[in-house]
Recover the amino acids of this structure.
């Protein structure tokens, strides 16, 4: 699985070749540093650990600083592992095939992605705080304001019967903390790439707020 | 935001469209694709608003069709706009002319601006 870490910039819309206006998200992707190369011999599986985003040294643990020193990089905000990262599949638009990449090397957006690729993006959704069932589970609420209703327009309704079973079943959908959950959106199209600014335009919306870190897998 | 501006600069179709403002009477020639066929449809009316900026700018054109008000929003940089012609310059005092929606007949008429500022 090839992929990189990016940071959401915002949304805009562009026209495709058919003249249709499509909404897309601008993501700043990479360049990401390879911080660790895992192999079957040493770790039991093949993977690449990559890092992105600047972090302050005072906010980073000493263990992490030493770990990143091996790759020769400064502290990073976000580290992710990609299982079975195919380093041979990297293609640079200018020079053609890219040689093998190892510890401490940089991965850029144009090497990993190409226009027209289908990608899946995972990240944390925006936190909404404590929300009622109408927002949280798309309950309808009570649609009447009259006919004897009072104070009940966004109420959940019945949560169960009375003396039998004499309890509310577990998993009953009620109000509570909403959002800020990890989600993965699959089958999104890469609309455009700007290698000089490390920007990726992905069709549709991505999870999280502006500036949020997202993991883009090919 | 700089990155979005950069994207807009890269994507903006560099072509000459005549300058127009809210209140102007224009004709938009818009390409319509029906299956394999392509034809051009003219939409004539008054510009009642220009919205947005850079490559996502849009404008709204309002016309009366058989006594019914019809409004259409066009993206300014749409490749489907083949031509825009300005017929009349309107004399208006605001940027969004939504008050026209409530008016009909002679009251909905926009005075013509005869002199253009140099």
């Amino acid at each position: 699985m090839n992929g990189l870490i990016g940071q959401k910039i915002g949304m805009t819309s562009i026209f495709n070749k058919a003249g249709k206006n499509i909404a897309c998200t601008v993501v700043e992707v990479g360049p990401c540093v390879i911080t660790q190369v895992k192999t079957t011999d040493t770790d039991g599986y093949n993977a690449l650990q990559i890092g992105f985003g600047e972090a302050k040294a005072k906010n980073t643990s000493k263990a992490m600083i030493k770990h990143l020193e091996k790759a020769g990089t400064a502290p990073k905000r976000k580290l992710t592992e990609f299982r079975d990262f195919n380093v041979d599949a990297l293609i640079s638009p200018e020079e053609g095939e890219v040689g093998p990449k190892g510890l401490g090397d940089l991965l850029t957006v144009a090497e990993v992605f190409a226009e027209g690729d289908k990608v899946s993006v995972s990240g944390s959704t925006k936190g909404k705080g404590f929300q009622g069932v109408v927002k949280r589970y798309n309950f309808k609420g009570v649609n009447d304001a009259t006919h004897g209703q009072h104070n009940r327009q966004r109420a959940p309704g019945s949560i169960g019967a009375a003396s039998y079973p004499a309890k509310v079943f577990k998993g009953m959908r009620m109000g509570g903390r909403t959002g800020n959950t990890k989600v993965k959106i699959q089958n999104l199209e890469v609309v455009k790439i700007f290698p000089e600014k490390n920007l990726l335009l992905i069709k549709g919306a991505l999870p999280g707020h502006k500036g949020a870190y997202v993991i883009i897998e090919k | 935001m700089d990155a979005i501006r950069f994207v807009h600069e890269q994507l903006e179709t560099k072509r000459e469209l005549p300058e127009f403002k809210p209140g102007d009477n224009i004709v938009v020639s818009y390409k319509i694709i029906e299956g394999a066929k392509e034809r051009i449809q003219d939409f004539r009316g008054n510009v009642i608003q220009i919205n947005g900026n850079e490559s996502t700018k849009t404008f709204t054109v309002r016309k009366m069709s058989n006594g019914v008000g019809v409004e259409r929003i066009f993206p300014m940089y749409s490749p489907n706009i083949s031509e825009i012609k300005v017929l009349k310059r309107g004399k208006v005092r605001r940027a969004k002319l939504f008050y026209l929606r409530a008016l009909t007949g002679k009251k909905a008429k926009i005075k013509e601006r005869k002199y253009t500022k140099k």
